Amino acid sequence: MHHLSRRTLLAATTAGVAATALGAAPAQASKGPSDQALKKIISGMTLEEKVGQLFVMRVYGHSADAPDQADIDANLKEIGVRTADELIDKYKLGGIIYFQWAHNVRDPHQIADLSNGIQRAGQRQPSRIPLLIATDQEHGIVCRVGKPATLFPGAMALGAGGSHSDARKAGQIAGAELRALGIVQDYAPDADVNVNPANPVIGVRSFGADPDAVAGLVAAQVKGYQSANIASTAKHFPGHGDTATDSHTGLPVITHTREQWERLDRPSFEAAIAAGIDSIMTAHIVVPALDPAEDPATLSRPILTGILREQLGYDGVVITDSLGMEGVRTKYGDERVPVLALQAGVDQLLNPPTLDVSWNALLNAVKSGELTEARLDESILRVLRLKAKLGLFKGAKELYVSHSGVDRTVGTAAHLAAADRIAERTTTLLVNKEKLLPLSRRTHRNVLVLGANPASPSLSDGPPTTVIGAALTERGFSATVLATGTAPSQAVIDQAVAAAAGKDAVVIGTYNVTAGSAQQKLVNAVAATGVPVVTLSLRNPYDVAQLGAADAHVAAYSWIDVELRAAVRVLTGAAKPRGRLPVPVQRADDPAQVLYPIGYGLRY
């Protein structure tokens, strides 16, 4: 048995009990191979196998050995192999990441079969090391596995609910369903503290703007996920919550002082570590106060080794954010990035743009002496410890999944009902002039639904306006739907105004509204008709500051069905609004002034 702290052992024991209650296999942290046994495995590996073990890579296709021709072509073009089988054979990978756009996640049985095929490919390798199959299933606006899996409100919605119990329950159920599909590592929860309303990449993926509140919810989610015997990943260290640049397309710079970082960003990661977090993902951001050399955190030894390892005492797996993102590629070439990441303290290298370049860069760095084989062994031991904790070395029963297990676990009525209950507790009422809400079937029966339709093909029963309309109809209202989009033309605005004539109320779904935008003009124009207007923010709650013409405003925090249906139940009085803002909303005309503070939320 490898050495675990008493706290980690207690967490693992508690996790096992919770997982059993959910019908998932409990984590067996104390019964996996010992460090001595894992080191013996490492000593028998070739250098090529060791290098491969550090990579987690994308691959196109719904099947490990028989993907569609278009996916074979994409694999050949981007990776130089035809299938997942060939990818694992050639590069001896430690892990695979699933994406919708890579066609990995069509339906639950297919996902389970793909996972089994990938693990079988791993077992054919000389070292027979299981793979960590991972995905980004944060819930809310970031989900890779869609329906019929249970989809939960995202982090900011859970922040509005404020319930540690709900956050943990969502993690437990989500983790159990992923594990039933053969996915054993989830890149969630997001531990960033969103203190910048203009943040283009985090926003509602964060639990909120209060560091202590975020820390408590992060810890609850970590315990929930890991109780279902799945590895949880807190991201993005050292904190991506105050960026105005998207690290997918540029290199953000965080200007926090060291004291601000300690107060704002540190608590949530510290809470994740205290909760026994299995892995932590790095951020492609520059924080000069933490690293005067201004290297991206992913490549920064002062940040990853100096702060995360030494000061915070974290000895679990550190994984990079995707190495295909521009934020990590702006300062160094792709062949230098994996070497610098290992030197900084990283263990897993996620999704490099060109695997052959990155894989050979590490191989050559060891051969040249720039990296020692002992340094690779250190990271491989952490990765194998995690695989052992998850029970992946225990045999076929833990390694492979079944269709019957999928059917017993994924999208069950009990899980879906839990998601609905949790969503109701997150919906936040911010404006309710003259007590317009809840809408009454007697006085507001004929409702026009307008607004944006963010795309979420496998996460919804249809576009948001359609889902809202259907939910109103189910509640006994007569709903007419007219999708106006995020940038309605004057002709579309005129059409909406005409459609509002004779209606009892108008519900408008808004999406990232800015001053002077077409969405704002739509709301103003419809409100000018005198018909009562309810706006429903489909993403950021900050929309409300731009929508003074609305008679009522509700924050749903996402366009995912579970949150939209809950919002409609609140609009119509079938549920009461219970959410409270987890972030402050500033005035549109004076951002220095707070319009609605953290904790604000109306009731009825």
Automatic annotation (TrEMBL):
GO terms for biological process: carbohydrate metabolic process; peptidoglycan turnover. Its EC number is 3.2.1.52. It catalyses: Hydrolysis of terminal non-reducing N-acetyl-D-hexosamine residues in N-acetyl-beta-D-hexosaminides. Keywords: Glycosidase, Hydrolase, Signal. Residues 428-604 form the Glycoside hydrolase family 3 C-terminal domain. InterPro entries: GH, Glyco_hydro_3_AS, Glyco_hydro_3_C, Glyco_hydro_3_C_sf, Glyco_hydro_3_N, Glyco_hydro_3_N_sf, NagZ_Beta-hexosaminidase, TAT_signal. GO terms for molecular function: beta-N-acetylhexosaminidase activity. PROSITE patterns: GLYCOSYL_HYDROL_F3, TAT. Residues 46-386 form the Glycoside hydrolase family 3 N-terminal domain. It is an enzyme of class 3 (hydrolase). SUPFAM superfamilies: (Trans)glycosidases, Beta-D-glucan exohydrolase, C-terminal domain. Residues 1-29 form the signal peptide. Transmembrane segments: none annotated. Belongs to the glycosyl hydrolase 3 family. This is beta-N-acetylhexosaminidase.
